[in-house]
Protein backbone atom coordinates (compact mmCIF):
# COMPACT_ATOMS: atom_id res chain seq x y z
CA UNK A 1 0.00 0.00 0.00
CA UNK A 2 1.50 3.32 -1.09
CA UNK A 3 1.79 6.21 1.30
CA UNK A 4 -0.36 9.22 0.56
CA UNK A 5 2.07 11.59 2.30
CA UNK A 6 3.47 14.20 -0.03
CA UNK A 7 7.32 13.83 -0.01
CA UNK A 8 7.61 17.61 -0.24
CA UNK A 9 5.92 17.87 3.16
CA UNK A 10 8.42 15.50 4.75
CA UNK A 11 11.40 17.82 4.27
CA UNK A 12 10.20 20.65 6.54
CA UNK A 13 8.86 18.09 9.02
CA UNK A 14 12.23 16.35 9.19
CA UNK A 15 13.92 19.72 9.60
CA UNK A 16 11.68 20.60 12.52
CA UNK A 17 12.22 17.18 14.10
CA UNK A 18 15.98 17.54 13.78
CA UNK A 19 15.80 21.01 15.33
CA UNK A 20 13.75 19.69 18.26
CA UNK A 21 16.14 16.78 18.86
CA UNK A 22 19.14 19.11 18.67
CA UNK A 23 17.47 21.56 21.05
CA UNK A 24 16.60 18.80 23.50
CA UNK A 25 20.15 17.52 23.51
CA UNK A 26 21.26 21.05 24.54
CA UNK A 27 24.11 20.91 22.06
CA UNK A 28 25.46 24.35 22.97
CA UNK A 29 24.08 25.31 26.36
CA UNK A 30 25.05 22.18 28.30
CA UNK A 31 28.81 22.24 27.60
CA UNK A 32 28.89 26.00 28.16
CA UNK A 33 27.33 25.56 31.60
CA UNK A 34 29.73 22.75 32.52
CA UNK A 35 32.88 24.55 31.43
CA UNK A 36 31.67 27.89 32.74
CA UNK A 37 31.30 26.34 36.20
CA UNK A 38 34.71 24.65 35.96
CA UNK A 39 36.34 27.95 34.99
CA UNK A 40 34.62 29.66 37.91
CA UNK A 41 35.94 27.00 40.30
CA UNK A 42 39.53 27.16 39.10
CA UNK A 43 40.47 30.42 40.92
CA UNK A 44 39.18 28.84 44.14
CA UNK A 45 41.72 26.06 43.69
CA UNK A 46 44.49 28.35 42.48
CA UNK A 47 43.92 30.82 45.29
CA UNK A 48 43.00 30.00 48.89
CA UNK A 49 43.25 26.22 48.57
CA UNK A 50 46.66 25.95 46.95
CA UNK A 51 47.97 28.73 49.14
CA UNK A 52 47.77 26.26 52.04
CA UNK A 53 49.71 23.56 50.20
CA UNK A 54 53.42 23.07 49.83
CA UNK A 55 54.87 24.02 46.46
CA UNK A 56 54.91 20.43 45.20
CA UNK A 57 51.33 19.80 46.28
CA UNK A 58 50.20 23.06 44.73
CA UNK A 59 51.74 22.24 41.37
CA UNK A 60 50.25 18.74 41.47
CA UNK A 61 46.79 20.13 42.26
CA UNK A 62 46.99 22.65 39.41
CA UNK A 63 48.39 20.00 37.08
CA UNK A 64 45.53 17.59 37.79
CA UNK A 65 42.64 20.08 37.87
CA UNK A 66 41.78 20.42 34.18
CA UNK A 67 42.49 16.83 33.09
CA UNK A 68 40.34 15.41 35.89
CA UNK A 69 37.51 17.95 35.93
CA UNK A 70 37.22 17.85 32.14
CA UNK A 71 36.74 14.07 32.32
CA UNK A 72 34.10 14.53 35.03
CA UNK A 73 32.37 17.26 33.03
CA UNK A 74 32.26 15.23 29.82
CA UNK A 75 31.00 12.23 31.78
CA UNK A 76 28.21 14.37 33.25
CA UNK A 77 27.26 15.61 29.77
CA UNK A 78 27.16 12.03 28.52
CA UNK A 79 24.97 10.79 31.37
CA UNK A 80 22.58 13.73 31.04
CA UNK A 81 22.25 13.27 27.27
CA UNK A 82 21.69 9.53 27.66
CA UNK A 83 18.99 10.11 30.28
CA UNK A 84 17.18 12.59 28.02
CA UNK A 85 17.45 10.21 25.06
CA UNK A 86 15.95 7.35 27.07
CA UNK A 87 13.22 9.58 28.50
CA UNK A 88 12.12 10.86 25.10
CA UNK A 89 12.72 7.66 23.13
CA UNK A 90 15.21 9.38 20.84
CA UNK A 91 18.60 7.87 20.07
CA UNK A 92 21.71 9.74 21.10
CA UNK A 93 22.92 9.86 17.50
CA UNK A 94 26.37 9.25 16.09
CA UNK A 95 28.20 12.22 17.60
CA UNK A 96 27.48 11.58 21.26
CA UNK A 97 29.18 12.69 24.43
CA UNK A 98 29.84 9.02 25.10
CA UNK A 99 32.20 8.89 22.14
CA UNK A 100 33.67 12.27 23.02
CA UNK A 101 34.29 11.19 26.62
CA UNK A 102 35.85 7.91 25.55
CA UNK A 103 38.18 9.61 23.07
CA UNK A 104 39.16 12.22 25.62
CA UNK A 105 40.04 9.55 28.20
CA UNK A 106 42.12 7.65 25.65
CA UNK A 107 43.96 10.83 24.67
CA UNK A 108 44.46 11.76 28.33
CA UNK A 109 45.86 8.31 29.11
CA UNK A 110 48.37 8.64 26.28
CA UNK A 111 49.34 12.14 27.45
CA UNK A 112 49.93 10.89 31.01
CA UNK A 113 51.77 7.69 30.03
CA UNK A 114 54.02 9.50 27.56
CA UNK A 115 54.34 12.47 29.93
CA UNK A 116 53.80 14.87 27.05
CA UNK A 117 54.42 18.58 27.63
CA UNK A 118 50.73 19.32 26.95
CA UNK A 119 50.08 17.97 30.45
CA UNK A 120 51.62 21.15 31.89
CA UNK A 121 49.26 23.47 30.04
CA UNK A 122 46.93 23.32 33.05
CA UNK A 123 49.60 24.97 35.20
CA UNK A 124 51.11 27.59 32.91
CA UNK A 125 48.11 28.44 30.70
CA UNK A 126 45.07 26.93 32.45
CA UNK A 127 42.36 28.32 30.17
CA UNK A 128 44.00 26.84 27.08
CA UNK A 129 42.93 23.35 28.21
CA UNK A 130 39.14 24.03 28.31
CA UNK A 131 39.51 26.08 25.12
CA UNK A 132 40.97 23.06 23.32
CA UNK A 133 38.23 20.77 24.62
CA UNK A 134 35.48 23.23 23.65
CA UNK A 135 37.04 23.56 20.19
CA UNK A 136 37.06 19.77 19.84
CA UNK A 137 33.41 19.57 20.97
CA UNK A 138 32.48 22.35 18.55
CA UNK A 139 34.10 20.46 15.70
CA UNK A 140 32.62 17.15 16.86
CA UNK A 141 29.08 18.57 17.15
CA UNK A 142 29.39 20.90 14.13
CA UNK A 143 28.62 23.77 16.51
CA UNK A 144 30.07 27.12 15.45
CA UNK A 145 29.01 28.81 18.69
CA UNK A 146 31.10 26.42 20.78
CA UNK A 147 33.97 27.12 18.41
CA UNK A 148 33.64 30.85 19.01
CA UNK A 149 33.62 30.39 22.78
CA UNK A 150 36.67 28.16 22.44
CA UNK A 151 38.48 30.89 20.51
CA UNK A 152 37.60 33.56 23.09
CA UNK A 153 38.69 31.27 25.95
CA UNK A 154 41.94 30.40 24.20
CA UNK A 155 42.84 34.02 23.45
CA UNK A 156 42.08 35.10 27.01
CA UNK A 157 43.97 32.11 28.39
CA UNK A 158 47.03 32.77 26.28
CA UNK A 159 47.01 36.46 27.15
CA UNK A 160 46.65 35.71 30.86
CA UNK A 161 49.56 33.25 30.70
CA UNK A 162 51.81 35.85 29.06
CA UNK A 163 50.82 38.50 31.63
CA UNK A 164 51.39 36.05 34.48
CA UNK A 165 54.93 35.41 33.30
CA UNK A 166 55.59 39.11 32.68
CA UNK A 167 54.33 40.17 36.11
CA UNK A 168 55.57 37.18 38.13
CA UNK A 169 56.01 38.09 41.80
CA UNK A 170 54.43 41.52 41.42
CA UNK A 171 51.15 40.66 43.13
CA UNK A 172 48.97 40.97 40.03
CA UNK A 173 47.79 37.35 40.04
CA UNK A 174 44.41 38.45 41.34
CA UNK A 175 43.71 39.96 37.91
CA UNK A 176 43.96 36.49 36.35
CA UNK A 177 41.55 35.14 38.97
CA UNK A 178 39.16 38.01 38.25
CA UNK A 179 39.42 37.33 34.54
CA UNK A 180 38.65 33.65 35.08
CA UNK A 181 35.62 34.53 37.17
CA UNK A 182 34.28 36.98 34.60
CA UNK A 183 34.81 34.52 31.77
CA UNK A 184 33.06 31.74 33.70
CA UNK A 185 30.06 33.98 34.40
CA UNK A 186 29.97 35.17 30.79
CA UNK A 187 30.02 31.57 29.59
CA UNK A 188 27.14 30.64 31.89
CA UNK A 189 25.24 33.70 30.63
CA UNK A 190 25.96 32.60 27.07
CA UNK A 191 24.61 29.18 27.97
CA UNK A 192 21.36 30.75 29.20
CA UNK A 193 20.94 32.62 25.90
CA UNK A 194 21.77 29.48 23.92
CA UNK A 195 19.21 27.52 25.93
CA UNK A 196 16.52 30.07 25.07
CA UNK A 197 17.33 29.65 21.38
CA UNK A 198 17.28 25.87 21.73
CA UNK A 199 13.85 25.98 23.36
CA UNK A 200 12.58 28.34 20.65
CA UNK A 201 13.88 25.95 17.98
CA UNK A 202 11.92 23.14 19.59
Key attributes of the depicted protein:
0% strand, transmembrane helix, mainly alpha, membrane, single chain, 81% helix, 8 helices, transmembrane, 202 residues, globular
Overview of this protein structure:
By secondary structure, the protein is an all-alpha fold. It has one domain (20-201). It has 8 helices and no strands. Helix 1 (7-24) runs antiparallel to helix 8 (173-201) and helix 7 runs antiparallel to helix 8 (173-201). The longest helix has 34 residues, at 55-88. Keywords: Membrane, Transmembrane, Transmembrane helix. The chain crosses the membrane at residues 27-45, 60-81, 104-129, 149-177.
Mean of the pLDDT scores? 78
**Main sheet record:** none
Which runs of at least 5 residues are low in confidence (pLDDT < 50)?
A: none
Based on Cα principal axes, name the global outline.
Answer: globular
Query: Helix proportion of residues, in percent?
Result: over 70%
Derived from helix and strand composition plus strand pairing, the structural class reads: mainly alpha
Distinct helical segment count: 8
Rounded to the nearest angstrom, the distance between the terminal CA atoms is 33 Å
Strand content: under 5%
Transmembrane segments: 27-45, 60-81, 104-129, 149-177
Keywords: Membrane, Transmembrane, Transmembrane helix
Amino acid sequence: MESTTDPAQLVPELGRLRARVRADQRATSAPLVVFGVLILLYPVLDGPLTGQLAAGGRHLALLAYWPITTAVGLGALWLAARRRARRDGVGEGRRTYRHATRRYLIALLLVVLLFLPVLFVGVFAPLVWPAAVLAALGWWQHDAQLGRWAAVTGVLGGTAAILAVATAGSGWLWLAWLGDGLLGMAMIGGAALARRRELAAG
